[in-house]
Design brief:
Elements (H helix, E strand, L loop, with lengths): L16 E5 L23 E5 L3 H4 L2 E5 L3 E7 L2 E9 L3 H11 L6 E8 L2 E5 L9 H11 L4 E8 L6 H18 L3 E5 L1 E9 L3 H10 L3 E6 L7 E9 L3 H11 L4 E5 L1
Antiparallel strand pairs: 1-13, 2-7, 3-9, 4-5, 5-8, 6-7, 6-8, 10-12, 10-13, 11-12
Helix pairs in contact: 3-4, 5-6
Length: 255
């Protein structure tokens, strides 16, 4: 069920731009972009930022729950633990939570939109963190961290063996993990006469918009401000529905 929040006294939102439109109505909106930051890291870890088409399309697939996978390779025990993270802070918090201090190595990598970071944690450079990051990239998942814990079993694997071990364990951990599709929300707002509120709310509920707020402090008689967020792929359909059901001028806003 859609939760609708109504309040007679909500501070007026500051919008940078407005446009008066006559029927047919055109909705103005802007993607809810998230600022990304590349972290400065020590020599034991690497980070980079490259364009990601999926993250710019308005939706992404991530893990729906934490997953764990274990494998023994030449007497060394490898434990991969993966989870969904929203930003660098939550990724580092996840790392701190699952790392095992008594393990020989706690290697890891994460991908959050265009931000990437990985660590070999004492393994030869490029043999652990990068293969884990490559496994994340191949999985098509976003907002994900994978930590691979190693307990050394006495047999050295060599450079190629380490790459295969860390990358393989990470890939297997993610291969059959439960996932979910997350859609970006587009923030929108409009001024509407009181007598059109019933029609408007019906359409907003039909399109399952979220975070609906109503502000009566518009400075205009019998007019209220409605703001909300809608799935990026429902904006056009919502626009068409409002065109068909609203028979007068409405002011739409974007941030």
């Amino acid at each position: 069920m859609l939760a609708v929040t109504k309040s007679p006294l909500i501070p007026r939102l500051n919008f940078h731009k407005q446009l008066l439109i006559s029927v047919p109505v055109h909705i103005l909106s802007c993607p809810n972009l998230t600022e990304t930051r590349v972290a400065m890291v020590s020599n034991s870890s690497t980070s980079s930022s490259t364009p990601s088409n999926d993250s710019r399309m308005g939706s992404f697939t991530t893990l729906s729950e934490r997953v764990r996978f274990e494998r023994e390779i030449k007497k060394s025990k490898f434990i991969a633990i993966a989870g969904s993270v929203s930003d660098e802070r939550s990724a580092l918090s996840f790392l701190s939570e699952v790392s095992e201090p008594r393990a020989t190595h706690n290697c890891w990598a994460y991908k959050i939109q265009d931000q990437f970071r990985s660590s070999d944690d004492g393994e030869p450079s490029g043999t652990a963190g990068k293969p884990i990051l490559s496994a994340i990239g191949s999985s098509g998942l976003d907002r994900v961290i994978v930590v691979v814990i190693r307990y050394f079993g006495g047999i050295k694997l060599g450079t190629g063996g380490l790459v295969r071990a860390y990358g393989g364990v990470a890939a297997e951990c993610l291969r059959n993990a439960p996932t979910c599709l997350v859609k970006s929300k587009i923030p929108m707002g409009l001024e509407v006469p009181f007598d059109l509120l019933g029609v408007l709310y019906h359409q907003l509920q039909t399109f399952q918009v979220e975070d609906i707020k109503q502000d009566y402090e518009t400075g205009k008689e019998n007019v209220t401000m409605i703001t909300f967020k809608v799935d990026f792929d429902r904006v056009q359909s919502l626009e068409e529905a409002l065109k068909a059901n609203c028979s007068r001028d409405i002011i739409f806003y974007k941030r």
